[in-house]
Amino acid sequence: MTTTISTQLPSLAQLPATYLIELSEFGAISLSGEEQSKYLQGQVTCDVDNSTATNLLVGAHCDAKGKVFSVFRLINRSAAHLLLQPKAGIENSLNALKKFGVFAKVNIDEAKELCFIALVGKEASSLLQQEFAQVPDSLSPVVQVGSTSLVYLCGDQPRYIIIDEEIAISVLIEKLALPTYSHSVWDLLEISQGFPILTASTSGHYVPQMLNLQAINGISFTKGCYLGQETVARMQYLGKNKRALFSLQVQLTAQLQADDKIEKQLGDNWRKAGDILAYYQADDGSCVIQAVLANDGELPTMRIASQTDSVIINQTLPYTLAAE
User: Which is nearest to 142 in space by CA: 52, 59, 72?
Assistant: First the structure.
């Protein structure tokens, strides 16, 4: 696409009322064929049997030990299941799905022909209504209009993922004529909403509950067997999980680095507090961080190890981790 992408990295408060995000780092795994649903049902944490043309499921794909390859949003498009997720985490999940898929009547590939953008903000719905005969909402979060798939994500502000081939997406961007930001702003929104972001380096390290999948309806505890189910069930019913996903905020004077660490204070000493999964640092130095930390009580005093004057603040997520 030849659209102009803003080089600015605004904080949440600095974003305009309505805007576009170029999802160039977003992708999907496609499963099609006679046994696509049966096969996927035995591989992922969500109940694929409940997937319809108009609903949206959240799920995780785990290995046999219950460690998460990828977290995805599941929709249906052109008679195929699409697992929407960041491109960075697709390879491990795709390889594992293909490994077992040889025994089923299913075709499994990365949907490289598709292009993705996001429309965000209070005028997003009305703008889409001007372009499409039907717009998704909380009751029907997925709609198909011609060749275009529209996906609604609820949250602090309406978000829509728009899926089509590159030419159609380019035409729509030109029509909307809105400020367009890079994919990093999408990470800002995902972190703020507590939706896990995995990359190739963090894939395969966490069980679903460490990523709060149970809190965002990403795990079915009533479906049949699937890969890694024993570990997931043990975590849920025996209380074995002691970690969770957190959204943190910190004001920094220098750029956060990929190898930076979060430290917690223990008396006069500082020790590693957990793992950083993703982060977004705005131009004003404000930084949001998605991290997996111990979830055994009130969070300790924390800082970024390389910036010892920093003070990390826990942000309230739009869901609760309390046991039902």
Answer: 52
